């Protein structure tokens, strides 16, 4: 299937190939999107997807770890990867005339990793877990996911736990790789000076036959009860997250959510930033956030402040949450948020890696890939009434949990009473 901006094709080997040709460039960004993430891991193997992501770089049947690094350095390019709750992506940027070599290295890494230095890399991942535990502003989001998505596979921490990583055997890691990193299940996405037909032939040359498909995920809706949770750690600041169940990825209100996030806590002119930081100087960092998954999501806000300021911050935050959920947004503020979103989209698509991500993630998650004009139109359609209705749903007090990290739980309990989670009636 062809569109004005990209070509999407279902290959005989089961893969989906999507490309966007930008012939004014001399570079290509190529990505392999694997439908395996922390939500797909059994409890004893939580963190396996991320662990495997690390191990892919440690050597394959054709290339040692040093050779992989040297080849991409020689190409003047970049080779990287990331893991989320629903997928792993391995991607590379390189000059357009190096496609054949780059593709060969990346496919060999993905399909025939040797898992060399598994125990050494295990220590690296354990250090990464320790680094997050020492960073409350990161750790609090994992805790919030566990609270809001209580019992749901999406609540699994992407990095895993010390126990799960320390206890993962090479045999179990290899078995997870065989089951979830099948080539025919991967989406191949490329943007830049790329020839779609050439890439298709190179992909099919050595991998013409499909593998057996992965087991289908089971959809389930989180059923946890909103609650207050505090983790005592020696910190200079009190870190706080408020949030609850949000929207699924295919919810038509996702554009309303984007506009709401932008005006509430997603920009320098947003309400939270202006009221809490700029006008009162109570925090350094404060923002709202939304994560959309297959069947559910999380929406909330985060801030960090000195302990003695927690009460004042909570009072201001509560007032702004209440105002967002009870008063229509003024038209000029709404339009400013829309323009901010559109500007971010346009600037974001000025790189091949962003364009590749837009294509690969869209296909893997079965999300409609819209043109810039179509996206802008969706954003412009958002009304103040829609923002009001969505805010009153996702920020309703009865549906919100509050998580805190700091050295004094009594201050947290005083600012966030158990019978009124965010101080709203």
Which characteristics define this entry?
globular; Cytochrome Bc1 Complex, Chain A, domain 1; 17% strand; alpha+beta; 11 strands; 425 residues; six-stranded mixed β-sheet; 2 domains; 16 helices; 43% helix
How would you describe this protein?
This protein is of the alpha+beta class and 425 residues long. It has 2 domains: 200 residues, Cytochrome Bc1 Complex, Chain A, domain 1; 188 residues, Cytochrome Bc1 Complex, Chain A, domain 1 (2-Layer Sandwich), CATH 3.30.830.10. It has 16 helices and 11 strands. It has a 6-stranded mixed β-sheet, with helices on both faces. Strands 7-11-8-10-9 form a 5-stranded mixed β-sheet, sandwiched between helices. Strand 4 and strand 5 form a beta hairpin. It is globular and about 60 Å long. It starts with 6 loop residues before the first strand and ends in a 10-residue tail after the last helix. The model has no long low-confidence stretch (mean pLDDT 93).
Please provide a brief summary of the model.
With 425 residues, the chain is an alpha+beta fold. The protein is 43% helix and 17% strand. A 6-stranded mixed beta sheet has the order 1-2-6-3-5-4, with helices on both faces. Strands 7-11-8-10-9 form a 5-stranded mixed beta sheet, with helices on both faces.
